[in-house]
Amino acid sequence: MRLKVGIYNLHMQARGGGEKRTLVLAEHLSRSHEVFLFHAGALDVPALERYFDIDLGGVRLVTLRSLDHLNGGGRHRRLTGKWEQTRERLEHFRKIRSSGLDIFVNNSYRSDLPCPAPLGIYMCMFPPVPVGPAEADGFVRGTYYKLLKSVERRLLGHAASDFINSYPVVTANSRFTAEWAQALWGRRCDMVYSACDRPGPAVEKEKIILNVGRFTATGAGVLLKRQDIMLEVFGRLDPKLSDGWQLHFVGSVRRDAETRSLVARLERAAAGLPVSFHFDADLETLRGLYGRASIYWHATGYGFPVASRPDLHEHFGMTTVEAMSAGAVPVVFNSGGHRETVAHAADGFLWDEPHELAAHTERLMADTRLRSRLAVRAVASGARFSRSAFNASVDSIIERLTRGG
User: Fold this and answer.
1) Residue 17 pLDDT more than 50?
2) Which of 32, 180, 373, 401 is found 20 to 30 A from 189 (Cα to Cα)?
3) Whether residue 298 sits in one domain with residue 176
4) Residue 76 binned pLDDT confidence (cut-offs 50, 70, 90)
5) What's the number of domains the chain is made of?
C-alpha cells in the first residue's frame, strides 16, 4: 500500500544524529511511499545529501515558519516568544493536516506538536525535563500562559495539552531514553536504535584520538559535549606514552555568542598541543578521521547529575557507534546510551572520572595488542546499529499501524 507519509524536523541545520535519522528515514520510505519532509528555514539539499550520504530525489520538501530568533531575551521578549511559539504550533498543525497525510512521523527534538494525521509515530530522542522554577509563577505570567493554553485547546482540541498521547506509537533511541519517557510521560516506547554507518573500509590506524560532537553551550559556562574536559585530560597524559599522539575534535559550532566564546577559549587552551579542530567538516574528512583514529573519546554528561539533568547526558551515542564500526576503541563516559553500546573491557572502556579516562587511554597507548583486540570487537559491536536495522524497525511499526495493531 502506497501511503502519504510526513516527517517533521525543525533542526536540519544542526546536522546531528536526529537529522541523520530524519533523512535516512525519508530516503528509505520514499522508495515505497509519497514522502513529505516538513522543515524550517532554507535547506542546502546537495550539501545534506553529501554530508549524510543520502538521496532526497524522491522526497518533497515543505518549508515551515520558524521562530528561533525569538529565543532568549528579557521578560517581554519571552512573553512575546511564547505567543509566537503558540502561533507557530497552530500554523504547523494546520499546514501539515491540510496535506492529507496517512502517517505523520515527528522526529523534531523536544517537539510538542500534536499528531496532525490519522496515524502517528513520535520518535523520542529524549523527553523534555522540567528545569528550574515553573514558567507560570506569578499572576501575570500565570494568567497569560493559561490564556495561551486555552487558545490551543480551542483550536487543537484535547491533544494540545496531552500531545504525546495523540501519537499511537512512541519510539525511543535507547533504553535510557525509554526509561525517562516512561517516568516523565507515562508512555511505553518501541525501541528503534539510531541509524549508524560503518564509515568505510579499514585503513592503517594512526596515533589519533578522535571526538565527534557539536560545539554547543549549555548555559552553565561549559560545552554540552565537554570538549573542555577531554582537552584538559589530553594535556595531562603521560608524555612517555602519549608521544606522537594527536587529539582531533570534529563538529559544527552553534552560532550563539556563548558557544563562540567557549570555543575560542578552547582553541586558546589547545595552543602548543598536537590538537586539531575540524569545524563543519565534510563527510570525506569525517570518514577519513574515523578510519585513521585508534581511540575514540566521549565525555557528554560529565559534571551533570543524571537524576536531575538526564537531558544533558548522551541519549544514544551515534558517533561512538560509528567510531567503533571503524575500529576505533571507545573510551567514553559511563552514562546514558553508552552503557548499551559499549561493554566495559570487552570492546572499549567506560569511565566515571577524568583520571579514569586518562588511565584507560594510557593503557591502550602502551599495549598495541590490547588495542587491536578491542578494536576487532568494537567493529562487531557497532554492526548491530545499522541503517538497515533502523529502517526495518520503522517498517515494522508502520505495517503494524496500518493493520490496526
Assistant:
1) yes
2) 32
3) no
4) very low
5) 2
